[in-house]
Write a structure and sequence with these properties.
Blueprint lengths: L1 H28 L7 H35 L12 H28 L7 H7 L2 H14 L4
Helix pairs in contact: 1-2, 1-3, 1-4, 2-3, 3-5
Length: 145
Amino acid sequence: MLWFKALHVISVIAWMAGLLYLPRLFVYHAGVAAGSEQSETFKIMERRLYRGIMTPAMIASWLFGLILVIGFGAVSWDWSAGWGWVWAKAIFVLILSGYHGLLGRYLRQFKADANVKTSRYFRMINEIPTLLMIGIVVFVIVRPF
């Protein structure tokens, strides 16, 4: 079980790094002219980050997390048994996964030179994974309910 915990934490760290870095790339990408050499460089960086690191890390995070929950019976499915934190964490992880998908949508827009969002917008949404991560860590460590 400890190996799966370690692999889960490693994959979550890699996923979070990407979730924090990709919107920052979008901030800079939104500030350059479509079709420029800089824009094309950003497209390569963004695609490699999303497909080569973020998506495999997300899949691994889910896989190792589910192995821990289902395979090792690490939690009870009964909310009243003091395992409410697991369900709260699961909701935040689902939202984080949706955010990952949203970034994929923006990636496709940049690829098509069809981005309409400003760099300020990407600066603002860059805070979303941090807030979700704080919630997830509190649920797992403090287990408030």
